[in-house]
Design a protein that fits this description.
By secondary structure, the chain is of the alpha/beta class. The protein is 41% helix and 17% strand. The protein has 25 helices and 20 strands. The strands form five sheets. Strands 2-1-3-10-4 form a five-stranded mixed sheet. The longest helix has 18 residues, at 507-524. The two termini are 45 Å apart.
Length: 642
C-alpha cells in the first residue's frame, strides 16, 4: 500500500519506538518468536501474539509493521513482501493441520472449517475439492475444538495445538501437509514474516533470521516447556518441531507457495498473487491501471492493495464502467428491483452515545420514546394497505426493553400484520445478549422463533476498530459485529451488509471494511446485498463530516460492486444522495433501488429528507434503461419485470 495510505493508519511502533510485530500463538511459532522477546531483539521489536486471523488483521490495519502472516491473508491484503529464510512450512505430514472424520470422506456431507486460519481453510477446500466426487457443504466456525462435537455425517478441519491432541483419534484423517506434497511434490508454506512494501529493511530481515537461529537451537527446551504446561508427550512435541515443521523459506518453499496461490486463484478463493521476497533484486512487476480496470470488469477477485489502487487512481468513468460490467454479468436480464417496506425506529433511547448520531437520546432524556402498540399498528397498517411486504425495525440500545419485550412484539406483529421482519442490527442483538447474560446464538434462536426473518446490516459504520473507537467507542468491535452476522447466517438467517463512510475514515479503512464483508461471505454466503452511504452531518453532533459528496459516493458504490464479488446485490442509496443520484447509481454497479420511503428517522435527523413512492421508483428505474420488479428481502421477484 502507498506511503500516503500508511500515514492515515495507527502507529506500528510502541511508546519506546520499538517495531510492533504480530506473531501467532501456536507451538509451531515459538522457535520464531521466543528469541525476539529477549535481548538484544527486544530492544528493537515488541511481539504481540494472537491467532493467525488476528495477526493478519493487525498487519492489514497497521497495528503491526511486520506479522507472521498466514499466506492466504497476505494474498488478500496484497502488496506484501516476505522475509527470506523464515516460515512455518512443511514437506510432508505437518500433524497440526488435519481433516478428521468418523466416516470415509466420500460419504461426508458437511465440512466444518476453522475460521482462525484462512490459509488452512483454503488448502482444505483445494485438497478435498480434488478428492471428493461431490461438493460438500462448507461451514466455517469460530476457532475452537471442532472435533469434539463432530457428528457422523461431518468432517472437521482442526488446526494448531488442538490438532496435535486429536492425532490418531479418528478412523479417517487427512494430513493436509502430506496431501499437498502428494499432489504437487512441493513444500507447503502456512505463514511467513511479511510486511507492506518497504516495511522490512535488510537489517530487519537479518534480525528476524538470527532470532530464528536461536529459536531452532532452543527447540528441546521449548518442547519440554510446552509438555510441562499442557501434558503433551515431550518426545512427540520435539519431533513435531524438528521433523514435521520446516522453518526455512527458500527457493523450494517459494515454488510451493506460488503453486498454492495459483491453484487458489484458479478456484476463485484468493486474488491473483505473485510471491515477493523483501530482498528480491528486481522491482515487483505491477499491472498497468488499464489492465487492473479490465480485470475488475471481468469479475476477477482483487486484493486490498489492488482495490486501494483502483479507488485512488482510476477515473470515475472507468470505475463505473467496470462496476456496470460486473452488474451485467451477475444480473443479465436488465432488471432492477425495489421493495415496499417501512423503516420503523421503535425507540430512540440509546446508551452508545455515537458521536455522529443526531437521532439518539440518552436514558432519561425528555425526548426519549418507545413506540406504543397503537403507534406501531398505525404504521404497520399503512404498509399493508400500500401492498408492502416487510418492516425494517431498528432502534437504540434501550436498557429498559428486555428480550421478552421483543419476543412479544414480534409475535404480535406477525400474527396481526403478517409482514416480513427485517429487524435488529448486530449491535442491538449483542446488546440483548449482554443485557440478558445469554449467548448470541440463544438470543437469535428465540428471536427467530418469535418471527425474525432476516438481520439488517446497521451499526457496521466502518469495520476497522481504530475508526470505531473514534466515532463510537461504546459500540461493539468489528469482530463482534461480524460474529453476530456469522452466527445469524449459520442459523439460516440472511442479512444485508452496509457501510457508512465519511467520518474519520479514509479509503484504506473502507477497503478493509469491504474485505471483511467479502471474507465472511466466503464463509457463510449469508449476505444478500450491500448498501453504502456517506455520513450526514448535523450541527450539534460531536464529529465533523469527512469525505463526502456525489462523486465519492458513486466511486465507493462502484468499488464495492467490484470488490464484493461474492455478494449478489448492491443497492443504490438514494435516501442520502437523492433520487437523481440513485438513478445514476444504477450505472455504477447497483441492481436494486432500495425501499419505498414511508418514513426515515435516523439520517433525516441530520436534515436528509428525500422520499419517493413506488410509482416514482419504477419511473426512475425505467429512465435508467432497466425493467422494474418489486421484491422481498430474499430478492425474489414479487411482480413481473416491466
Amino acid at each position: 500500500m502507498t506511503a500516503a495510505a500508511r500515514r492515515v493508519g495507527p502507529r506500528d511502533v510502541d511508546a519506546d519506538g520499538r517495531i510492533v510485530v504480530a506473531g501467532v500463538s501456536y507451538l509451531n511459532s515459538r522457535p520464531i518468536l521466543d528469541a525476539l522477546e529477549r535481548a538484544p531483539f527486544s530492544d528493537r521489536f515488541v511481539v504481540r501474539r494472537a491467532v493467525p486471523a488476528e495477526a493478519a488483521r493487525m498487519l492489514a490495519e497497521q497495528e503491526a509493521r511486520v506479522a507472521l502472516v498466514p499466506v492466504a491473508a497476505a494474498a488478500t491484503i496484497g502488496g506484501i513482501e516476505l522475509v527470506r529464510g523464515v516460515a512455518i512450512a512443511t514437506r510432508g505430514p505437518v500433524r497440526s493441520v488435519l481433516l478428521v472424520s468418523k466416516r470415509p470422506f466420500d460419504e461426508v456431507d458437511t465440512v466444518l472449517l476453522d475460521a482462525s486460519s484462512r490459509t488452512s481453510v483454503v488448502l482444505a477446500r483445494l485438497v478435498l475439492g480434488r478428492r471428493l466426487r461431490r461438493a460438500p457443504r462448507w461451514v466455517v466456525r469460530a476457532h475452537g475444538d471442532l472435533a469434539r462435537t463432530l457428528d457422523d455425517g461431518a468432517a472437521a478441519l482442526v488446526i494448531g495445538d488442538p490438532a496435535l491432541q486429536v492425532e490418531g483419534l479418528f478412523p479417517h484423517q487427512i494430513d493436509l501437509g502430506e496431501a499437498w506434497l502428494d499432489w504437487t511434490g512441493l513444500p507447503f508454506v502456512f505463514a511467513a514474516w511479511g510486511g507492506r512494501r518497504g516495511a522490512i529493511d535488510a537489517s530487519g530481515g537479518d534480525a528476524l533470521r538470527r532470532a530464528l537461529a536461536l529459536g531452532l537451537a532452543d527447540r528441546a527446551a521449548i518442547a519440554a516447556d510446552h509438555a510441562a504446561r499442557t501434558g503433551a508427550d515431550v518426545a512427540s512435541t520435539l519431533a513435531y518441531l524438528t521433523d514435521a515443521i520446516r522453518f526455512d523459506l527458500g527457493d523450494d518453499e517459494r515454488l510451493g507457495l506460488q503453486r498454492f496461490y495459483d491453484e487458489a486463484h484458479a478456484a476463485g478463493l484468493l486474488p491473483r498473487t505473485q510471491v515477493r521476497f523483501q530482498d528480491d533484486p528486481a522491482p515487483a512487476p505491477r499491472a498497468t491501471l488499464a489492465t487492473l480496470v479490465q480485470r475488475a470488469a471481468d469479475g476477477e477477485r482483487l486484493s486490498g492493495d489492488e482495490a486501494l489502487r483502483l479507488g485512488t487512481e482510476a477515473s470515475l468513468f472507468d470505475l463505473g464502467v467496470a462496476a456496470d460490467a460486473v452488474r451485467r454479468r451477475k444480473h443479465p436480464l436488465g432488471v432492477v428491483t425495489y421493495i415496499v417496506d417501512r423503516n420503523v425506529n421503535y425507540t430512540n433511547v440509546c446508551t452508545t452515545s455515537c458521536r455522529f448520531c443526531a437521532f439518539y437520546r440518552p436514558v432519561g432524556h425528555p425526548e426519549g420514546y418507545v413506540l406504543t402498540r397503537e403507534q406501531l399498528g398505525i404504521k404497520l397498517q399503512e404498509v399493508v394497505d400500500a401492498g408492502g411486504v416487510q418492516i425494517l425495525l431498528q432502534g437504540g440500545l434501550n436498557p429498559e426493553l428486555p428480550l421478552t419485550w421483543y419476543e412479544d412484539l414480534f409475535r404480535w406483529m406477525k400474527a396481526t400484520y403478517r409482514l416480513g421482519l427485517h429487524a435488529l442490527s448486530p449491535e442491538e442483538i449483542l446488546h440483548l445478549a449482554q443485557l440478558e447474560g445469554l449467548p448470541v446464538t440463544e438470543v437469535l434462536v428465540r428471536l427467530r422463533a418469535a418471527g425474525l426473518d432476516s438481520v439488517p446490516g446497521g451499526g457496521a459504520e466502518i469495520l476497522v476498530d481504530r475508526v470505531r473507537r473514534r466515532i463510537a467507542k461504546a459500540k461493539c468491535t468489528s469482530a463482534e459485529w461480524l460474529e453476530v452476522m456469522r452466527t445469524a447466517h449459520h442459523l439460516g438467517l440472511r442479512s444485508s451488509a452496509t457501510m457508512m463512510y465519511g467520518t474519520t475514515d479514509h479509503l484504506l479503512d473502507r477497503v478493509l471494511h469491504l474485505l471483511k464483508i467479502r471474507d465472511l461471505q466466503d464463509e457463510t454466503g449469508g449476505f444478500t446485498a450491500f448498501f453504502c452511504w456517506d455520513y450526514q452531518h448535523e450541527q450539534g453532533t460531536r464529529i465533523e463530516a469527512g469525505d463526502g459528496g456525489t462523486a465519492l459516493y458513486l466511486r465507493m458504490q462502484a468499488l464495492a460492486r467490484i470488490v464484493l464479488d461474492n455478494v449478489p446485490h448492491v443497492g443504490a442509496s438514494w435516501v442520502t444522495q437523492g433520487p437523481d443520484v440513485g438513478e445514476v447509481a444504477l450505472r455504477f454497479g447497483a441492481d436494486d433501488f432500495g425501499s419505498v420511503m414511508f418514513e426515515e428517522n435516523v439520517v433525516s435527523s441530520a436534515g436528509t429528507t428525500f422520499g419517493i413512492d413506488a410509482t416514482h421508483i419504477e419511473r426512475r428505474i425505467r429512465a435508467a434503461g432497466f425493467r422494474a420488479a418489486r421484491r422481498n428481502v430474499a430478492y425474489d421477484w414479487l411482480t413481473e419485470p416491466a
